[in-house]
Amino acid sequence: MEETQTKRAIHRIGVLTSGGDAPGMNAAVRAVVRTAVGRGIECVGIRRGWNGLINSDFIHMDAGSVSHIIDKGGTMLYTARSEEFMEEAGRARALATCKLLGLDGIVAVGGDGTFRGALALSRQAAQSGQALQVVGIPATIDNDIGCSHYTIGFDTACNTAIECIDKLRDTMQSHERCSVVEVMGRHAGYLALYVGISVGATAVLIPEREVDFEQDIAEKIRRARLSGTTHYMVVVAEGAGSAVEIGKRIHQEIGIDPRVTVLGHIQRGGSPSARDRETASRMGYHAVMALTEGRGNRVIAIRDGQIADLEMEEALSMTKSFEMDRYEVLEALSRSGPGQM
Q1: Class of the domain covering 12-152+272-317
Q2: Taking every pair of C-alpha atoms in the chain, what is the biggest distance, in angstroms?
Q3: Which CATH number fits domain 154-269: 3.30.70.100, 3.90.1210.10, 3.40.50.460, 3.90.580.10?
Q4: Choosing from 21, 142, 155, 276, which is the catalytic residue?
Q5: Are 215 and 183 in contact (CB under 8 A)?
Q6: Smallest Cα–Cα separation from 32: which of 71, 66, 57, 68?
């Protein structure tokens, strides 16, 4: 149940990025700082996530300090994971920093773990009589946050993977080879499926669907070969298995020699796309507005293409159903015919 929020004047807020970095985090930080400053609110940048709050690692921020970062990947505030923050004693040290700096609220950019930490901090503050409201902004290339249909960084990561695979396909076609590419996504297949459809993959393996090697890979390659295709692309989500092992099995059972590529952390970097810059900017603006309007302990999410302001505990309890209709699209488009891909 949503807690009643008491509206109080906001004079100074902190902003931090936590967890895995995602393209667009800088755009979100920029939006938070400029929205706050424009309303007469001071802004403090907390470096290295919750660790920075524990260790008083911060910088004063103004409109000028966030100039020329909207097009930069990564995060200017750095990011880190903090085991100490998971303990009550660690959060007590973080609250001491908040009290020292006079922070009325914190905007935390990250994923579910970041939001759980923010909520725990806010509750511990309330128990000690310290007023501190938090707002979360979802940012992860995995797009696996249950409360938000879209997360900052996903579009850029997809575009990076597509660009890499398009280049791999050029040499694959030249040598008439099979390429097996592993993309990120942790335990979710959103990235793999979007990329697979976009590059015209022969097969895509995702953790949301049990892999049948014979039907999902071997038979698709055979049908493609019978239709005249001599090059094949298999996209593997990291949560669905090892691309290296898939490549070995293709060699053993089909007799072709695949080339395996694990894209890895290259997908996290690069200049954010227009979608990620614009989404991050809107989310940053609405995060500050939530604080100024007395609505703390919130997550700013995207629901059906629109900005949604959700109570944080409710947001953390939400799950996201995987859109298997996209897999059906992939299946229909990958049925081999002349000119596959």
Answers
A1: alpha beta
A2: 72
A3: 3.40.50.460
A4: 142
A5: no
A6: 66
pLDDT tens digits along 199-223: 999 999 999 999 999 999 999 999 9
Alpha-carbon distance of 32 to 146, in angstroms, equals 23
- The pLDDT tens digits of the residues spanning 83-116 come to 999 999 999 999 999 999 999 999 999 999 999 9
Q: Is residue 216 among the annotated active site residues?
A: no
Q: Which two tokens stand for residue 296?
A: 């703390």
Q: With 0.85 as the threshold, say if the pTM is over it.
A: yes
pLDDT of residue 334: 76
Extract the residue ranges of the chain whose pLDDT is less than 70. Answer: 1-7, 335-341
Torsion of CA 172, 174, 175, 181, to 10 degrees: 0
CB-based contact 286:278 (threshold 8 Å): no
Q: How far apart are CA 11 and CA 303, in angstroms?
A: 30
Domain ranges (residues) in the chain: 12-152+272-317, 154-269
